Amino acid sequence: MRFWALFKRDVLVSWRKKSNIYQPLVFQLLIVTMFPLGLGAGAQTLAKVAPAVVWILALLSTLITLENIFKDDYEDGSLDLYVLSGMNLYLATLSKASAHWVTTGIPVILFAPVIAVLMHLPEHTYGVLLLSLLLATPIFSLLGTVGSALIMNIRNGGMLLSVLVMPLLAPVLIFGAGAVLETSLGNSARGHLMLLLGCTVLSLTLAPLAAAAAIKINLE
Amino acid sequence: MNRIVKFYHEMGSPPSFYRITRHWLKPMLFLAIVLTLYGLIDGLFFAPTDYQQGDSYRIIFVHVPAAWMSMFIYAIIGIAGIITFVWRMKVAEAVMMACVPIGALFTVITLLTGMLWGKPMWGTYWDWDARMTSELILLFLYIGVMGIYSAYEEDPRKAARLAALVAIIGLVNLPIIRYSVVWWTSIHQGSSISLMGGSNGIKDWDMLRPLLVMALATKFYFIYSMLSRAQSYLLKTESKKQWVKQVIKKELSGDQS
Predict the structure, then answer these.
(1) Which of A164, A172, A205 to mutate to test the interface with B (most CBs of B within 10 A)?
(2) B213 in a domain, yes or no?
(3) Which residues form the signal peptide (chain A) (predicted)?
């Protein structure tokens, strides 16, 4: 099936170019070092902001990778080939988003506990943290395909991509970081996680449509 | 042909749109200026002083109409965006792109007047309450639409369609953003300050009147500004077309009809 062929190719390309995978993690590590330096290294101070920091780092480190989802394919012409091959663009963008999630989202999820330890996040919140990231990272990738499809033939489009994607990610951050925060305060995170799941489902259905539309306009 | 249908079709064609709406500019501007003057004078000097907020509440006569416009214009952008996207109408593109800077301007005015109002009322210029936060995010959405358009400016039609797509995505997300932000603040702060909501709304006609007049004035200003921007947008993007040449020739010869 073309979906899997494209998916396999993208994962393989990212895997061969290792920097795609470790760059976001190195970025997280660099930035998380700034917090104790700026805030003071007290465990209590850090624990207070930890849910937000871990979450925002996951978000930002994904954000820096989004620009390239379609850029390379656009520049070497393979994107034209996808379109010419008659492949359903909805499935093509879904495949791109899945591949991006596997190569960026999963490493970010797996790396989150490391950041959490460095930020003294209370241990009983780890489960919710991982669950919230598991629900949210697909949204990053899906909205990322939309943003990337919009800016793929602009030079230095990264800033514009942030402007386009950030407002859409605000609810995700509210629900995701909110879930971890509520757990750390001893409350139930159920409501937040449910709403986050709603966002995941919504972007899973709608984002490929928008990305496909953007590709069509861009290749006209 | 039915007159309304005919009018509708005429408005869809750039030359007729230009020809018809050119005559609307002056009356709209006139109404906007007169109503603004009336509304401001009435609001600043004749409306009764608020028993709680004193005179500083009077910024409401600028703040609230601007806030209404900031959201109203985004809705128009969304509708024009859908028309642009589905039917590729040039006039819809022009209207949409004409709306964006005006909407962004009203959003900035809303935020600034809100901050100025916040200082005497809440003791701080900025408070992350639901309205301010979602207004700020609305500004980001406006900036996004402007940004994508200017990135593709060499190809205005493509730029307009991509901007339309961004506007539609924003429109779909606006309710989600809005409710998530409302909910987020309700968790952190208990109840946020409600100035107009529920039974505490303005009941005094002397206070309401300038507010409504100002709301009308901003509408007329919007129509004026939007139409004149849309007209120059069409002149610019259609500059190779015959009708533009005729328009220019006509206006150079001083014929205003």
Answers:
(1) A164
(2) yes
(3) none
Q: What's the pLDDT tens digit per position in B71-102? A: 999 999 999 999 998 988 999 999 999 999 99
Tokens of A34: 């700034």
ipTM of this complex prediction, to 2 decimal places: 0.89
Report if residue B21 sits inside a domain. no
- Among residues B96, B251, B243, B66, the alpha carbon closest in space to that of B160 is found at B96
**Structural domains in chain B (count):** 1
A119: number of Cβ within 10 Å = 22
Q: What is the pTM of this model?
A: 0.89
- For chain A, the C-alpha Rg in angstroms (whole number) is 18
Cα gap A96→A159, rounded to integer Å: 21
Angle between helical axes of A158-184 and A190-219 (0-180°, round to 10): 170
Give the angle subtended at the CA of B189 by the CAs of B184 and B195, to the nearest 5°.
95
Say yes or no for a CB contact (<8 Å) between B148 and A160: yes
Q: CA of A178 to nearest chain B CA: how many angstroms apart?
A: 8
Query: Per the domain annotation, does B102 fall within a domain?
Result: yes
* A117-131, B3-17, B156-170: segment of lowest average pLDDT: B3-17
- Domain count of chain A? 1
Residue-number span of the structural domain to which A138 is assigned: 2-219
Report chain B's C-alpha Rg in angstroms: 21
So what's the pLDDT on residue B186? 63
Task: Name every chain B residue with its beta carbon within 8 A of the beta carbon of A214.
Answer: 162, 165
CA of A150: how far to CAs of A20, A33, A115, B82, in Å?
Answer: 21, 33, 32, 17
| A213/B158 Cβ within 8 A | no
CB B213 within 8 A of CB B35: yes
Residue B10 lies in a domain: no
pLDDT band at B191 (very low <50, low <70, confident <90, very high): very low
